[in-house]
Structure formats: structure tokens, C-alpha cells
């Protein structure tokens, strides 16, 4: 589909064959970005890894940092106990609500767990604290509002002269919300610098990822694009917004789909009981032995991709794709939401049916273009390995530990499955559920 609005030509790709051409065959021509005006808030377009050109030393350095230090198999294995502890805290919080007879807001609980995991990994501190803390709620609201503004149609994106006016106030509001997160990061960075200065030689410099980033700011071997405090702020913005929102929303959609299909939930719980054993906790090492759980996550990502149009790409040259010419400068959007519901690919595409992935080699790693919720090519989401570990661990633990039901007399057919669209896709109404402990 080709759309022309203002100065921008937009090509919407809704075919897996065309998606492969963009994300793999001609990736070098489509790795550029069109920059939404909202992203220019706090100069994030100049420093955010998701937006800067892939040809720059800055992008390569950030990507190398993610692949070698943050999301490599070795780094993730080293932090496995940390993730297990955070999931145990999630289960403990849920257990307390069982005792109090309270319903659980799954999206909020998952967000809090993801936030605490990231903040502990980076800063050795829980941002959200306990389940009763309002900090997680405030950060979740801030992150969603940023995603909403970035994904909102903005007339300034199509008529460049209007960027100076910001007629809808989108950049101004995004800037205010971004500054909230930056202020939070700055407080932690300032305190760490103070502690390092006080302790000097007595300080252990490999305490967490913040120490790694701070140490990189004094690295004199790479003067071409020196890593400084500003780049730390923007890297944290990328990781905390994407890493918390997408994981929590996908978990919420997963449980919602299971509550609408009790027979599928029963089958998942039976697999968990057989493999893990009643009374035992789910570990990351168990995931490979839980094919039905893996299929549930894939099926959720097919129907509810976290970023339904991915991030916008831009053609760096005139490119011919399957007899179509995509002109230089055109904005290219990959509609993974539509591809995931394409009846020419998927049998009964609107039905939640994890069995379609049993005995299938399709995965979300960017090599199967009928299922690319995290993108592909050199712009594929760098946090994909962590997201998949967390999704399986959290969903598996919640299913194995509790018997979930809908509250207030709501039946499976009555569950509101409407979504709200921003840059990411969330449930329009929070998923509130009740439960009984099974462990």
C-alpha cells in the first residue's frame, strides 16, 4: 500500500515476502529511519540507538555494547539468578493478594517485575520497590504516554515547516515525560559517582552495568565517538522504555488469551506439572523442555505484536522489490500485525491456537518473516534474547503457581480484548484476575 500525505510517501508492507525483501535482501538500503518529531524530544533522535544511522561509529559502539555486555548468552546466563529472584518476588506479591482477596492487575505486576529486573541489573536497586509502591505505576504511565505520543499521527511529520510550531504539542509533552525519566536516571548516576569518589581505590568497579557504562566514559581508546553521560542517559531511555512496556504488555495479552481459552490454559498447566513437578519452581533451564509454553508465547506475539508497525524505516535509494519501485526517501512500515493475521499464511488466523507452532521451526529471531514481532536485519531489537527469557519464565511461573480466573462474574466470552494503539499495542482495559495458589 502506498500513501502520500504532505511531503512524505509511505509504503506499508503487509506481505511476508515483501517484508523479507526489506528486512533481509535489501536491508542495507532500508536501515535508515524516518524520525517522528516526537522522537526529537530531549534530542533523542541524535543519541537513541533505535534512531541514529547504522553507519555511524556511535551506533556500532552501542550495538556492540548490547550484544557483548548486555544481551549475550554469557551475560544473560550470569544474571539468571537475578531474574529468578525477581520472578519469586512477583509470585510472593501475587500470593499476598490471594490472602487479601484482591484481584491482580497483570500488566502492572509484570511491568513492576520488568522494571525491577532492569533497574537491579543496571543500578543494583529496585526502582519499583514493593507491590504497594506508586513508583512503578508512575513510571508505567510515563512510558506509555511516551509510546502513545510517538505513535500518534502528527501533522508536523508530514509538513516539515510545522516542526517549529509543534501544532499538536506532541514534542512538548514527550519532552516533559522524557525529562521525568532522565531525572530519575541522573539521580542514580550522581549518587554512584559520589560513592565512587568517596571510596576511590576501595570501590569495586564491576558492581553492575552502570559501573561498566561509567568506566567507558573514561576510555581513551575511542576518541572518535566518546561515550559520555548524555549517551548513557539515552541508552537507558531506549532500554527502559522498550524493555518494560513490551514485555509486560505481551505477558498481559498471553494470560488474556489463555483466560478466553481455558482448555489451552489447562494443557499448558498440565505440561508444566509433568515437566517441572508439583511444588517446584520454573527455571530458565526448563524452557527448552516446555514446547507448548513456547508455542503460547509465539502465538501471542503473532496476534499481538508489541510494535504492530515496527519502527519506521526509510529507503536510502530507489529500490526494486518484486517489480515494485520504492523511491528514495520513502517511509517504509512493516505491518507485522497484518502479516500475523494473513489467511494465506495462517490457517484460521484470528483463532488463538498455539498448536500451529508445535513441530514448526518458525521462531521470532528475525529469520522467519511471517513472524517478525521484533523486526529483522541489523535493526532487529537487541533486547530480544532477554525479552524471550523473561516472557517464558514469568508466564510459566504464573501458570504453574496459580489457578487463574476472571473476576466479577466475567466469563471468557465477555473478556474485553480491545487494544489501544500507540507506538506499542496494549490492552485497552487492564486485565484484572483472581487466583488460587496451587503450590
From TrEMBL:
The keyword Nucleotidyltransferase does not apply. One of its GO terms (molecular function) is monooxygenase activity. SUPFAM superfamilies: Cytochrome P450 (SSF48264). Its cofactor is heme. Heme binds at residue 381. Transmembrane segments: none annotated. InterPro entries: Cyt_P450 (IPR001128), Cyt_P450_CS (IPR017972), Cyt_P450_E_grp-I (IPR002401), Cyt_P450_sf (IPR036396). The keyword Secreted does not apply. Keywords: Heme, Iron, Metal-binding, Monooxygenase, Oxidoreductase. PROSITE patterns: CYTOCHROME_P450 (PS00086). PANTHER family: CYTOCHROME P450, FAMILY 76, SUBFAMILY C, POLYPEPTIDE 5-RELATED. Belongs to the cytochrome P450 family. This is Cytochrome P450. The lineage of its organism: Eukaryota, Viridiplantae, Streptophyta, Embryophyta, Tracheophyta.
Amino acid at each position: 500500500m502506498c500513501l502520500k500525505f504532505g511531503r512524505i510517501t509511505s509504503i506499508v508492507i503487509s506481505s511476508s515476502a515483501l517484508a523479507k525483501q526489506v528486512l533481509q535482501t535489501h536491508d542495507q538500503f532500508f536501515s535508515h529511519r524516518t524520525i517522528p518529531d516526537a522522537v526529537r524530544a530531549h534530542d533523542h533522535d541524535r543519541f537513541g540507538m533505535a534512531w541514529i544511522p547504522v553507519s555511524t561509529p556511535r551506533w556500532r559502539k552501542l550495538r556492540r555494547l548490547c550484544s557483548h555486555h548486555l544481551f549475550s548468552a554469557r551475560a544473560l546466563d550470569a544474571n539468571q539468578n537475578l531474574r529468578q529472584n525477581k520472578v519469586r518476588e512477583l509470585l510472593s506479591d501475587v500470593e499476598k493478594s490471594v490472602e487479601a482477596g484482591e484481584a491482580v492487575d497483570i500488566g502492572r505486576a509484570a511491568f513492576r517485575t520488568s522494571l525491577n529486573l532492569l533497574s537491579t541489573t543496571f543500578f543494583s536497586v529496585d526502582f519499583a520497590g514493593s507491590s504497594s509502591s506508586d513508583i512503578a505505576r508512575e513510571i508505567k504511565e510515563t512510558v506509555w504516554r511516551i509510546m502513545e505520543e510517538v505513535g500518534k499521527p502528527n501533522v508536523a511529520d508530514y509538513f516539515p515547516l510545522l516542526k517549529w510550531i509543534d501544532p499538536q504539542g506532541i514534542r512538548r509533552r514527550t519532552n516533559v515525560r522524557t525529562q521525568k525519566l532522565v531525572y530519575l536516571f541522573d539521580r542514580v548516576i550522581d549518587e554512584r559517582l559520589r560513592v565512587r569518589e568517596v571510596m576511590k581505590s576501595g570501590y569495586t568497579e564491576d558492581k553492575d552495568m552502570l559501573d561498566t557504562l561509567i568506566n567507558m566514559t573514561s576510555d581513551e581508546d575511542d576518541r572518535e565517538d566518546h561515550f559520555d553521560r548524555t549517551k548513557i542517559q539515552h541508552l537507558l531511555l531506549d532500554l527502559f522504555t522498550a524493555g518494560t512496556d513490551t514485555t509486560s504488555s505481551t505477558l498481559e495479552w498471553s494470560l488474556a488469551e489463555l483466560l478466553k481459552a481455558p482448555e489451552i490454559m489447562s494443557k499448558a498447566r498440565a505440561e508444566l506439572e509433568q515437566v517441572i513437578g508439583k511444588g517446584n519452581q520454573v527455571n530458565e533451564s526448563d524452557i527448552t523442555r516446555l514446547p507448548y509454553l513456547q508455542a503460547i508465547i509465539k502465538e501471542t506475539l503473532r496476534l499481538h505484536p508489541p510494535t504492530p508497525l515496527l519502527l519506521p524505516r526509510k529507503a536510502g535509494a530507489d529500490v526494486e522489490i518484486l517489480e515494485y519501485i520504492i523511491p528514495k526517501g520513502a517511509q517504509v512500515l512493516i505491518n507485522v500485525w497484518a502479516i500475523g493475521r494473513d489467511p494465506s499464511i495462517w490457517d484460521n488466523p484470528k483463532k488463538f491456537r498455539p498448536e500451529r507452532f508445535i513441530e514448526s521451526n518458525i521462531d521470532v529471531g528475525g529469520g522467519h518473516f511471517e513472524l517478525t514481532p521484533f523486526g529483522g536485519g541489523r535493526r532487529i531489537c537487541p533486547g530480544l534474547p532477554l525479552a524471550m527469557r523473561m516472557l517464558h519464565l514469568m508466564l510459566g511461573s504464573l501458570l504453574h503457581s496459580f489457578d487463574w480466573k476472571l473476576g466479577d462474574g466475567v466469563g471468557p466470552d465477555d473478556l474485553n480484548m480491545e487494544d489501544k494503539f500507540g507506538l506499542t499495542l496494549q490492552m485497552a482495559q487492564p486485565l484484572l484476575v483472581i487466583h488460587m495458589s496451587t503450590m
